[in-house]
Amino acid sequence: MANAPKRTGSPALKLCLTAGLLLLLGACAARQPAPEAPGRPAAPPAAEAPALGGRMTADAREYPWSALGRVNLAGQGFCTGVLIGPRQVLTQARCLYAARENRWFQARELHFIAAYQKDSFLADSKIADFAVAPGFSPQGGTSLANLTNNWALVTLQEPIGGRTGWLGLEWDSSTLKAAADRGEAAYLRAGYRSDWPHAVSLHFGCAAPQGGLVNPCEATPTELALPTFVVSSGELRVLADFYLHSASQGGSLATLTATPIRNNRLGRAQAPARDSLIGRQPTATAAQLLAALGYDVSGGKLGEAVAAFRRDNALPPGEAIDFTLLAALVNAAARSGR
What we know:
By secondary structure, the protein is an alpha+beta fold. The protein has 9 helices and 16 strands.
C-alpha cells in the first residue's frame, strides 16, 4: 500500500506564516543602529565617575607623596619611611628589628628609596645609621613604652630630601579637629602597603554603613599600618601621634633632629627643589578626586574642573592646585562616599 502524502497545510496558512516572518524580520532590522556616516566614528559613551571608596593610589613622583619611601630590609620586606629632613627618615622602631633572627638590622643592610612607583624611583640612598626611641624594646610587645614610642630616626648617606621634599610633624589637637570640621584640614593615611608594595596608597575614609553588619569604613590591617597625616595650613604633615603619643615625649626626637617642638609641631615641610624631576603639586591626585566627584577632567579640562570645584565649595577662585584644594577634595570625597 502506497504511503499517504505528508500534510503541508493550506495556501492560506502558508501566506500567514510568510507575512508574520517578514514582519518579525522588519522589526529586528528596525532595532539595528543606523550606520555612521563615513569618517565620523561613533561617540564614546559617557564615562562614569570612578568610585574610590576612600582608597586610591597616588603618584609618588609628585610632592608631597614623593617624601614617602620604602625602607628596604635586607631582602626581608620593607616598611614605610617619611623624609622629615634632607637626610632624615622617620619610621617605626619595630620595623628595624629582625624578629626571626632576634637582632636589629645593621645599617649596611638597609636601603631607602623615595618617589618609588612601579619598580622605578627618583631618589635613593644607603643608610648611614639609625637611632631607636629610648625605652622601646623589640621584646616589649604592647607595653606602654612601645605603644607610645614606636619610632626610629634613620640617617641617610645622601641628602636626597632636596630632590624629593620633606614633611614636618604635628600632634593631633582640638585645633586640628575644628579645622577639619570646617573643611580646612583633612586626615588620611598614606604609604606602601604590604599587599600593594609598588605604589603609594591613600586611605581617607569611605561611605557610611548601609544597614549591614560590616562597616565598610573600617580600615584593613594593612591600612592601619600606614602612617597618618593631616593636610592643613598649606602643607601635608605627619600626624606624630602615630609614632609618639604626645609632644611631651618628643624631646629625644627633637634633639636628634636638632629641631625644637613649638605649638605642637616639629619641623616644617619643604617642597622639592625647582630643578627636581618631581612635580611640586599633587596634580594627579587632584584629577583623580575631581573625577570621582563627577567633574570632567578629560581633554585638558583639569583647570576648568578645579575652578568649578572651587566655586562650588566657596574656595578662593582660580585653577591653582594647592593644599587648600587637596584638603577640600579629600573631605568632599570622604563625605560623598566616593
